[in-house]
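Field reference: "sequence" (input) and "structure" (output). Example, Stress induced hydrophobic peptide:
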Amino acid sequence: MSLLMILLTIFLPPVAVLIKEGLGLQFLLNVLLTLIGWLPGVVHAFWVNSRGSAIA
């Protein structure tokens, strides 16, 4: 993960997920988690960004 992606994941979790996964279920789930609380959104964004690439 690049430094820019790490910073986006911390400060703007939905944007980081959008860049990694595109507009889809993971993005909507991250927006919901971020609205519930910042920390769940960040944890989910780190999980999404650390797993394998969805787009080949």
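The first helix runs from residue 3 to 11.
The mean pLDDT is 91.
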